[in-house]
Amino acid sequence: MAERTCLACRKVLSKDALLRYVASPDGHLTVDYTGRLPGRGAYTCVTLDCLETALKKRAFGRALKTELQPVELAELTGQLKEALETKIASLIGMGRKSQAVVSGTNEIQGRLGSRQLPGLVIVATDLSAGLYEKIKGLAQQKEVPFYRMFSKDDLGRLLGKGLRSALAFEPGGLTDRLIAELVRYQTVSGEK
Q1: Which of 51, 121, 130, 184 is most open to solvent, judged by the fewest CB atoms within 10 Å of its CB?
Q2: Average pLDDT, stretch 163-182?
Q3: How many CB atoms lie within 10 A of CB 190?
């Protein structure tokens, strides 16, 4: 596996563990979350601290060997959050296609009370506080990873259905990838 060095902390990690950035032809710094954009790349860890430090040190321009337009941390964070949301939505869609996801608060509460526990639970951001606490408590009690993301409408759209308040994913490789992306999203957004 190819390794790269973080511009800020100087840790050497695999490319997959780092974020890639490129310069657009007009000199704008762009997050290359998929790692597929053409051109020279620069890397940071997936933390706001490393991203902020690299910006303060003006390390991106040196690493990319180009003059960059001024960029704010909030702009790059926004690009990164958008890329992560897209990736997470894509993985949820893959879960739907592979029938590795079930939806509905009653179904999920039942699964959390059974022997065949889900590998992950995601609840909508606009879920009522009482139901949120109930599902969160069950998930924590059973040590099932639990995240809050997307609205009911968004979750339903990702499943090709109407409003959905909660999703549960079968344990497996897809769920592990989804959890990794959700952890990255929390790290970047500061949301819990």
Answers
A1: 130
A2: 96
A3: 9
